[in-house]
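In the design runs reported in the main text, the only information available to the sequence generator was the tokenized backbone. The following block is the verbatim input for one such run; it is reproduced so that readers can re-run the procedure and compare outputs position by position.
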């Protein structure tokens, strides 16, 4: 069993050496894209929440429940 664990970590180390890590410029660019998409999706979901909230309130009022 210890031999399998040792082999596993040796293979993990070998694969990690093959990874191409982004440089600072690429990292900042992709981080900016992710943050922008998060911001846009947050606004979009906020508007959807507001619309469905108002629709639900209107329906409940129209049915005399709310």
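Verbatim output:
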């Amino acid at each position: 069993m210890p031999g399998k664990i040792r082999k596993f970590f040796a293979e993990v180390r070998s694969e990690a050496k093959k990874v191409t890590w982004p440089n600072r410029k690429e990292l900042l660019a992709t981080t900016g894209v992710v943050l922008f998409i998060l911001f846009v999706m947050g606004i979009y979901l906020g508007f959807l929440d507001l619309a469905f909230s108002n629709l639900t309130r209107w329906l409940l009022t129209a049915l005399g429940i709310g």
